[in-house]
Structure formats: C-alpha cells, structure tokens
Amino acid sequence: MNVSTTANATTKLLRATPETVHWGYLDATIKPALSIDSGERVTIECATCNPEWMPAKDSGFDILPDIVEIHQKVKKGSGNHIFTGPIYVRGAAIGDVLEVKILDIKLRQNWGWNVFRGYMGTIPEDFPYTKLTHVPLDLKANVATTASGYKIPIAPFFGQLAVAPAAVFGRQNSKEPREFGGNLDCKELTAGSTIYLPVWNEGALFSTGDGHAAQGDGEVDGTAIETALTGTFEFNVRKKLGWKMPRAETPTHFISFGLDADLDDAARQALKEMIDWIVSMTGIHKDEAYAMCSFAGDLHVTQTVNNIKGVHAMLQKSILKK
Asked: Which of 10, 47, 240, 250 has the lowest tally of Cβ within 10 angstroms?
C-alpha cells in the first residue's frame, strides 16, 4: 500500500504509486488503498498529466518520479484524471454522509499544464484545434505566470473529491460529476473548507486528484492550471443527514451543488438544495428561505465543460445568525 505515518502519529500518509492510484474512472469494485476509522486524518499525494502532455525532461520543470512510474505501469481508463485511493472509512454505510475536512493543500511541483482541444471547451467553434501550455509556478511568490508574463494568484484545490458511485452503476468515466461528487471543479474548496459526500457503498471509498493551482468559475477551456498536489484531510462519518447530493462549507459560506447536462436545471437543483438546507438549519418556512436566497444567495457557474455542467449556490453563514 506504501502507507506510513507522518510526524503526527495520528495522520496517515497515502502516496501516489501504481498500487494506490486509478486512472480515468471511479468504480465501487476498486480495492481500497487504505482503511481508516472515522475521525482519522490522511495526507494524500496526487499526480496528474497524461504522457503526451508532459514537459520535456530538459525543461527545468520538476518531473515527479511517481508520475513517470504511473505512466509506465497503470492502465488508463476512459477519462484523464488520476486518483489516489480509494480510502475505506470503517463505519460508513449506504445512506450516510462522509464529511471530508480539507485541512491543508500544498503544491508538489513548479509547473502546471493547460490544454484545450477541438470539439471541447465552452466555445469550441472559436478554437477548432488543440493547444497545450506549460505554466511556471512560483511557489515562493505564490503566483503562476502566463505565456505573455501575466501573474495569476495561486489558490490550489482538488477538482476531484469523490466517493465511489453506487455499485449498480458500474464503472464511471472520471469526467462527469454526479451525486457521488467526482469532478466538481469548485474553486471554493481550498484548505479550510469541508465537503459532504453522500455514501453509496460500504466504507464510502473516497478518492481524490485533479489538482488545480488556479481556476476561474466555469473552467471554460476545459482545464485549469492543472498540477500535482498533496492534501491533508480529516474524515468523519455523519449519520441521519439524509443528503442525496454533495454539499460544502467554507469558513464563511454554505455551498450547495446542482449537476445536470442543462445549465438551467443545474441552477434549479443547486437552489433547491440550498433552500432545503436553510429550512433544516433554521426551521423557517420554505417560502422565506426562497426569498432569502434571492436577497443574499449567489449562484455561480462551477464548470461548463464536463458534459454534466455544474452550478453552486453560496450563502454567507452570517446571514443565518440573528
């Protein structure tokens, strides 16, 4: 498993190796890379990039040994995302919710990549070709530099935060986010945030990957500044919440998600989820919660490029404090 403890004996380490990753898919039948108890913390190393998108060996960019070994030994599925996991959380049962606290995120390398391809992205009719860009990352200054020298602040997050899909659905492409989470691509989920994932299999089977150094809402050309990350997470099993869709919190906001091929329907779902959450937290009538969302809620387009589009609704936590 290549699992060890870190300096903090209560935090386990899960490295990205050919034995602990799966490439391009989510599946309830994947053997767990690690088993933990509810309440435990795990530091997870992740890798990213297809072989054809890697920089040259003499580019000056860090080439992690694990990505080279993964390319050589791991069979790629139908998607492009490399996951580390899954993690089996003892006590997690179907119908529960897995609370995943994102405690820390660090970059593992000094570069990222972005690629857009013909027939993909938000406006493929304007860009009917493929273009690959390698983006230098200044880890000390915390900025990425574009080809023309513009500086983009680094705000790292994991695009993929997933439990396994229900076994009845079989293997799922890594591209489409669904009720199990997956390729949500929500830039709000930086260190200090928490995501809640409904559990569809015993043990939840959590996997993560798809590291981003920076991304705008929409991820409009199909990728962000993709890079390799290490994250530290705390896992807690929550009973009797009854949630059927992912939800999240930042230090300042509640977040609900809508996922659908139709962007309007995704927005409706995100709004309905937020209204239900407000009602359950406050006990106010549903129509007052609807109005509150109109007064103070924000609908953001999470991404428009994963076949299943995403919208996330955000409400400041302070709004619910009288």
From this structure: 240
Nearest to 137 by CA among 124, 125, 153: 153
User: Could you list the residue range(s) of the whole structural domain that residue 281 is in?
Assistant: 252-320
pLDDT digits 0-9 by tens, 126-161: 999 999 999 999 999 999 999 999 999 999 999 999
Residues 189-241: pLDDT tens digits? Answer: 999 999 999 999 999 999 999 999 999 999 999 999 999 999 999 999 999 99
Alpha carbon distance 286, 295 (integer Å): 14
Which residue in this structure is represented by tokens 């009288």?
322
Question: What is the total count of domains within the chain?
Answer: 2
Indicate whether 97 belongs to any domain: yes
Of the three residues 238, 272, 296, the one that is the final residue of a domain is 238
**What is the domain-level CATH number for residue 234?**
2.60.120.580
Contact (Cβ atoms closer than 8 angstroms) between residue 33 and residue 1: yes
Residue in the block written with tokens 């109109």: 294
> Does the predicted model carry a pTM greater than 0.70?
yes
- Distance in angstroms (rounded) separating the CA atoms of residues 91 and 76: 31
139 Cα distance to chain centroid? 21
Cα(254)–Cα(219) distance, rounded to whole angstroms? 21
Cβ–Cβ contacts within 10 Å for residue 141, how many?
Answer: 11
279 with 221, same domain? no
CA–CA gap between residue 302 and residue 15 (Å, rounded): 29
Residue 6 backbone phi and psi in degrees, to 5:
-90, -170
Give the contacts of 36 (CB within 8 A, at least 6 positions apart): 12, 42, 87, 88, 89, 90, 235
**Phi, psi angles (nearest 5°) of residue 293:** -65, -35
Beta bridge partners of 14: 3, 44
Question: Which amino acid belongs to residue 212?
Answer: H
Residue in the structure block whose two tokens are 């509640």: 254
